[in-house]
Design a protein that fits this description.
heterodimer, A: mainly alpha, B: FAD/NAD(P)-binding domain, FAD/NAD(P)-binding domain, 5-stranded parallel β-sheet, 24 strands, 26% strand, binds flavin-adenine dinucleotide
């Protein structure tokens, strides 16, 4: 377990930088993690996707790129544009939820 | 008479039919099992068919041979479950009432989810091997193939037996070496994951094996479509990989029946308590095997371990006791690595695959997370055990709960 400071708040994270206490998440924290991931500014669409991910995870659902593509906030191509590279890994990190383990 | 209904007579359903018939009194309990097909397929055997190692007859047997006397076997397509009324509706209009229900309808591939898979090259240059039709067609294709880019692609997780794609490329390596044409075949493993496997240590070891065998890993590739004209697969972020033969592991989903019954998530995996294996929706419904949305492998070994928990908890529920069975997600998979060798991984919800020995600490005979000849025999033996011990619900020599004995935490 490690700690990091984002937007002036101390946050608990795991070795890979994923937040371990989802309740510590705020929009400001998200914006700073996003910067570390190379996303300069979070738009409303970004936040809508992040909220969708947080809600799904709190319901205990398995998170897939496919599900996000059907969320109504963006399609899969759009999701890749919002979080370039490895979108699911980046988006979950910024959303303050654990790294998706859907793939076992 | 009280009624137990089991949906799906695959691995899990067949095990439960055998166990429950032995346990429940015939004067008190009717047991019915439903499936749409008359044949039982040994699905792990599909991996061996493209390489001519197994024939169709090795992997197909009549389902009826494995359903015990005293269980009603109905062939029919399940339309849906009405949990409020405790009824199962079959497509031909038959209605089955139940006191308790076990759902074991598994998962299957949906090639249509990815544009172009079922294009003009389907079963000509594009194959799956997760069905008997696909693996047989691929076996025929390999007989005369002259080589080129052999691309294996995983469309989306989760999939059945997450190690099967790795085994496929390692078998392909050995197969083409033995045919003296490995230099003409370029093998690529194209995956949406960031490495060979999901769990870090196993990924490192298995990734190393692929490298040794000159199999290229293309990670973080999430397929959008197959371009049949140019023989390419294209990802959502516009990466492209050329193929002369594409072996696809298409998107997996649960049976649409789960969705129609309102029991599942958006992939039609049934919503299940990962410890008790009871449906999140109804107290008298249990979910066994691949159909459940629990975070462990979709594999026959898991189905077997989970069947012990479903058995225990179903008996608790029948006898009005609190549920005492707690599943730990135990999974135990032999991994064929080619040339008569194999590896073995053993893990659960909380512990990733570790090196060591299995099942006896320091002795084995099976080596965890390393290539040995013994592990290959373990996998071959599994087919025999599957037909003769596992399906019949007899005791297997491995515990349902994972143990740390024999595992090494700090070795790699
Ligand atoms: C290529 C391949 C390799 C594999 N290798 C391994 C391995 O090495 N080791 C291992 O442990 N596991 C392996 N597996 C996985 C293993 O075969 C499955 O996990 C296991 O069979 C799942 O059992 P199940 O009872 O959940 O589902 P299944 O055995 O798939 O049974 C589901 C049954 O439900 C029936 N059904 C579904 N819907 C309906 C409906 N609407 N109406 C009527 N009937 C319906 C189906 O016809 C089927 O008979 C492999 C699988 C594949 C495809």
């Amino acid at each position: 377990m490690a700690e990091k400071t984002y937007a002036g708040v101390t946050i608990n994270v795991d070795e890979e930088g994923y937040m371990t206490d989802s309740s510590q998440w705020t929009k400001e924290v998200a914006a700073e993690i996003a910067k570390e991931e190379g996303i300069e500014e979070l738009t409303d669409t970004h936040y809508a996707v992040l909220e969708f991910i947080r809600q799904k995870v709190s319901e205990g659902a398995t998170l897939t790129i496919r599900a996000i593509g059907k969320s109504g906030h963006t399609d899969i191509k759009g999701f890749y544009k919002l979080f370039p590279g490895a979108p699911l890994k980046k988006a979950t990190k910024i959303a303050g939820v654990p790294k998706p383990s859907s793939c076992v | 008479m009280k009624k137990l209904v089991i949906l799906g007579a695959g691995t899990g359903g067949t095990i439960m039919a055998n166990r429950m018939r032995k346990e429940l009194d015939r004067d008190e309990w009717d047991i019915t099992i439903v499936d749409k097909y008359k044949n039982h397929y040994y699905q792990p055997g599909f991996l061996f068919i493209p390489f001519g190692m197994y024939k169709k007859r090795d992997v197909i047997k009549p389902k009826a041979d494995f359903i015990p006397y005293g269980v009603n076997l109905i062939y029919g397509e399940i339309d849906r479950v009405d949990g409020e009324k405790n009824q199962v509706l079959l497509q031909d209009g038959v209605i089955l009432n139940y006191d308790f229900l076990i759902i074991a309808t598994g998962v299957k591939i949906f090639p249509d989810e990815t544009p172009g898979i079922k294009g003009k090259l389907w079963h000509k240059k594009v194959f799956d091997y997760y069905t008997i039709e696909g693996s047989s067609a691929l076996g025929d294709f390999f007989k005369t193939w002259e080589g080129g880019d052999l691309v294996l692609n995983i469309a989306e997780n989760p999939i059945k037996c997450p190690v099967a794609p790795l085994e496929f490329v390692m078998f392909a390596d050995a197969f083409f070496v033995e045919r003296g044409m490995r230099d003409k075949v370029n093998i690529k493993f194209v995956t949406p994951m960031s490495g060979a496997f999901t769990k870090p240590r196993a990924s490192k070891v298995l990734g190393g094996l692929l490298k040794e065998k000159n199999i290229e890993i293309v990670p973080d590739f999430y397929i959008e479509k197959v371009d049949n004209e140019n023989q390419k697969i294209v990802s959502y972020d516009e990466q492209e990989v050329h193929f002369d033969c594409l072996v696809t592991i298409p998107v997996h989903k649960g049976d649409p029946m789960i969705g129609r019954s309102g029991l599942g998530d958006d992939m039609d995996f049934a919503l299940t308590d990962k410890y008790t294996l009871r449906s999140d929706k109804f107290e008298n419904i249990f979910i066994l095997g691949d159909a459940a949305n629990i975070p462990t492998s979709k594999a026959g070994s898991v189905v077997h371990f989970a069947s012990e928990i479903v058995f225990e908890n179903l008996m608790c529920a029948i006898e009005n006791r609190p549920l005492t069975g707690k599943f730990d997600g135990h999974s135990n998979c032999y991994i064929e690595t080619g040339f008569g060798k194999g590896a073995l991984i053993d893990f659960n919800y909380d512990t990733e695959p570790l090196p060591g020995h299995f099942p006896f600490p320091g002795i084995g005979p099976f080596g965890l997370l390393k290539e040995t000849r013994m592990n290959h025999y373990g996998k071959l033996l599994f087919r025999w055990m599957y037909w003769h011990i596992l399906l019949k619900g007899k005791e297997m020599p491995i515990s349902a709960h994972m143990t740390m004995a024999g595992k090494k935490l700090h070795d790699i």
